[in-house]
Amino acid sequence: MKPATTVPRPTVRRSTASRAGAAKAAKAAAAALPGQVVLALQGGGALGAYQVGVYEAMHQAGIEPDWVVGTSIGAINGALIAGNPPERRLTRLRAFWDHVEQQIDVDGPFSSGPFAGLGWGNALANWATVAGGIPAFFKPNPSVLAGTQANVGVDAAAYYDTGPLRETLSSLIDFDYLHEGSTRLTVGTVHVTSGALRYFDSREQRLTVDHVMASGALPPAFPAVRIEGEAYWDGGIYSNTPIEAVLDDRPRRDALIFAVNVWQPDGPEPQSIWKVMGRQKEIQYASRTDSHIARQQQIHRLRHVIRELQKQLPAKQRDAAEVKALTAWGCGTTMHVVRLLAPRLEGEDHTKAIDFTAGGVRARRDAGRADAQAVIAQAPWQAPVDPLEGVVVHELPSSHDIREVPRRVAGR
C-alpha cells in the first residue's frame, strides 16, 4: 500500500489561545472540501467516546458529514449525528454519553503497590459494569439464571437485556428527520442464520431504532434484534471497519472520508495472559483496515488507468457499444481517506471497551477532538495528487505512546 501522508500528532491539552487559533485555522481549511464528506465509525463500546471528540472538531470547523457509516457503537454515534439537525447533534451526543457514563472511582487496592502494572485496577473498576450493567444502556438478563444451555431463543440468549438502550436511543434520535434524508446513515449488521454481512442504508429504506440496535447487538453479551422477522447481530463480528461500504458505493463520487478507528492494529508483544487477551481483541476488532484500503487503492488505480486508456482510443471506437461497456469500469473519482486512531490510555487492558468511567470517556473524547483538529488544520486533502491515484490516505503518525488519564474522578 502506498505510504500515507502524515501530520503531526498533537498533545491533548491545549490553552484557550491555541484552541481559538486551531478553530480559526480549521474553518479556513474546511473552505474547500474535495467531495462528499463521509464519517466512518468502528465499533468498540466505550472506545466510541473518541469518535465523539472527532465529530466535535468537525462540527466546530463547520464540516458536517453528508454520510455516516457505523458499526456497533459507531452505528449509535452515527445515528445520533445523522438523526438530528446539525445544531442539535452535539447536545444529543453528549446526552447519550452522559447517560452511559459511570461515576466510579477507579482507584483501589489493586491500582498501586505490588499489583501496579498488572492491569487489575482498571479491570476491577469495570466489574461494576459487568455485574450491574448501565442503567441507560443494558441490565442483567434474568433468563441467564436458567443456565447457558437453556433454549430461550436467540432474542433472549444473552447475558444482558438492552431494553434500556432502546428507550435511550428512541428519546435522542429523530427518525423522522433521518428519513428526510438530510444526512445518509448506513449501519453494519450480521444475519444470524446465514452469517452474511448486511448494511442497512437510509438511502434504500426507512431506518428505525431496531436497525441501530441490531448493529450493536454483540453476542453473547447482547441479544439478537429482529428486522422484518430475521435475527441480526453486531456487524463487528464479521467486519468491524465499515469503510468498505463507502469505497464500494455506487455511483462513485469524490469524497473526503474520516475513518475513525478505535482499536490498535499494531502493538508490542504481550508478556502475560492478561495482556494477551487485550492484544487478541485489538487484532480481531481492528478488522483488516489496512488490507481493505490497499485493495481499494489497487481497484481505483485500475479504474483510473481504464479512463486514461479510453482517452487514447479514436472517437469511433469509443462510441462502440462493446467498448462503452468495458470503459464503464473506469472512473476519475478521488477519495481522500483521513485515518484517525484512538490512542492507548494509561492502565487500559482488555476490558477497555466497557470503561465507561468519567475519566476514560473524557480522555478519549479529548484525544479525538485534538487529533481531528490537527488534521483539519493541516487539510492534507488540498495538496495535489497523482491523477492515477483513486484512494489517497492521510493519517497521524502511528504511535504506541500512552496518554495519561486522570485516575480519580469526583463528579464531572
- The global form is globular
Give unreliable regions as ranges. Answer: 9-18, 108-119, 404-412
Q: What pattern of helices and strands is seen along the backbone?
A: EHEHEHHHEEHHEEHEEHEHHHHEEHEE
Number of helices: 14
Q: What portion of the residues fall into strands of 2 or more residues?
A: 5-15%
> How would you characterize the largest beta sheet?
10 strands, mixed
The share of residues in helices is: 25-40%
Distance between the termini: 43 Å
Work out the number of β strands: 14
Q: Nearest-angstrom radius of gyration?
A: 22 Å
The overall average pLDDT, rounded, is 84
Helix/strand-derived category reads alpha/beta
Q: How does this model look, in words?
A:
The protein has 412 residues and is an alpha/beta fold. It is built from 14 helices and 14 strands. The protein has helices spanning 16-29, 49-60, 73-82, 86-100, 120-132, 163-172, 175-180, 209-215, 243-247, 273-286, 289-312, 315-318, 321-327, 358-378; strands at residues 5-6, 36-41, 67-71, 139-140, 160-161, 184-191, 197-201, 225-227, 230-234, 255-261, 335-341, 344-345, 391-395, 402-403. The strands form 3 sheets. Strands 1, 2, 3, 6, 7, 8, 9, 10, 11 and 13 form a 10-stranded mixed beta sheet that branches. It has a two-stranded antiparallel ribbon with strand order 4-5. Strand 8 (225-227) and strand 9 (230-234) form a beta hairpin. The model is unreliable at 9-18, 108-119 and 404-412 (pLDDT under 50).
Entry summary:
With 412 residues, the chain is of the alpha/beta class. The protein is 39% helix and 15% strand. It has 14 helices and 14 strands.
